[in-house]
Amino acid sequence: MKKVLKNLIAVMVIFFAINVVEVKATDITSDSVPFNAENMFPGDKIVENFCVKVTYDEDITLQFDTDIHEGSEMLAEVLYVQVKVKEGEQVLYNGTMKEMPSSLDYELKATEKTTLDVHYEISVWLDTSVGNEYQNKKLTADFIWFVEGEEVEDMEVTPEQDDSTDYLPSTLTGDNTNMYFWIVAMGFAFYALVYFGLRHGRREKTNVQ
């Protein structure tokens, strides 16, 4: 009798666990693109543009996050980033990549099925005050857009090329050392060309006489 009772209790416990204890995963729609920054000098700036196409049927919160890969933590401490939604010129974040919140939210409204393009401009730069220990370091990360819930049917992120702002090297953003070097080098080359040209001309005249 005790054995039957134990078996009955065990069956009841299993039945209760199967029917009552339920873990439901949150429905997440997401898309991501890789990002790399390396060999940056103080004053260097990278600007990348993305179009996020979202199809949804009621109010949602479009969220942005950055997944910094292992080994990139040092540069993330001093690498600044600005995340801006071009619609309305709304700046979602402006600070170091390390201190960026886990979610930058942008609210989207809808009363019926809607497909919308949201344009992000992400600027990443190395401040001119950064010391030598941070130069020539590499940062690898993923830019991630996601929405929690079942309201989203589809989402796609597409990089948009903007030749005017894609990459601004240090020669344009604060560190002019390389530019000055090439100007001086070209000046010396021009001077040498003129000098040896005149000298060669004089030798020819002397030989003719």
Q: How far from one another are the termini?
A: 134 Å
Assess the beta-strand content as a share of residues.
35-45%
The proportion of residues forming helix, as a percent range, comes to 25-40%
Mean pLDDT: 74
**Helical/strand content category:** alpha+beta
What summary fits the major beta sheet? 6 strands, antiparallel
How many strand segments? 10
Secondary structure tally, helices: 4
* Apparent shape: elongated
The low-confidence runs, each spanning 5 or more residues with pLDDT under 50, are: 1-26, 163-182
Radius of gyration: 30 Å
H/E element sequence: HEEEHEEEEEEEHH
Task: Give a short overview.
The protein has 209 residues and is of the alpha+beta class. It has helices at residues 2-20, 73-76, 170-173, 177-208, and strands at 28-38, 45-56, 60-68, 79-85, 90-96, 104-108, 114-126, 138-148, 152-160, 167-168.
Search tags:
41% strand, elongated, 28% helix, 4-stranded antiparallel beta sheet, 209 residues, 4 helices, alpha+beta, 6-stranded antiparallel beta sheet
